[in-house]
Design a protein that fits this description.
With 145 residues, the chain is an alpha+beta fold. The protein contains 4 helices and 3 strands; from the N terminus they run ααββαβα. Strands 1-2-3 form a 3-stranded mixed β-sheet, with helices on one face.
Length: 145
């Protein structure tokens, strides 16, 4: 019997773009990003604002509105953005999908050449990290928070 390689599905040719279209309709179901009073001050802020268009696969809510984005840093000269993200559980089955979606969305932004994703487990995510906007979105979807 041949030995099977254990690689993440995305390395085996999983078409996450097709999954996104089929399950989320190209982010059409997400509430629009908040209205901002001024343009983004820098590349990190532009990237953070773009993450309002990356949804949690289970709910029509952005990663930012769910409190999963712990930080965004940018090297403006190199065009490198580093996103610190957590998940609702250490065994989240959607980790690869979410990382892929974050990377794909940010690479659509001008001046972003590379996206680095750091997984953060401390402090652990709890519902207390959901900002008020996120709570309002979840309540409107019928989710008690």
């Amino acid at each position: 019997m041949p030995v099977l390689e254990r690689r993440p599905r995305y390395e085996q040719g999983m078409n996450f773009a097709a999954v996104l279209r089929d399950t989320q309709g190209h982010r059409d179901d997400l509430p629009p990003p908040p209205e901002f009073d001024a343009p983004a001050a820098d590349l990190a802020e532009r990237a953070r604002r773009a993450l309002y268009e990356v949804s949690d696969p289970e709910f029509p809510i952005s990663l930012v509105d769910l409190g999963l984005i712990y930080g965004v840093e940018a090297d403006e000269v190199a065009g490198v953005v580093t996103v610190s993200v957590t998940f609702t559980a250490t065994a989240c089955p959607c980790m690869d999908f979410i990382k892929w979606d974050v990377r794909e969305r940010l690479l659509e932004e001008p001046d972003i050449e590379e996206v680095r994703i750091e997984i953060v487990w401390d402090p652990p995510w709890t519902t207390a990290r959901i900002p008020e906007r996120g709570r309002d979105i979840l309540r409107a979807s019928g989710v008690a928070v």
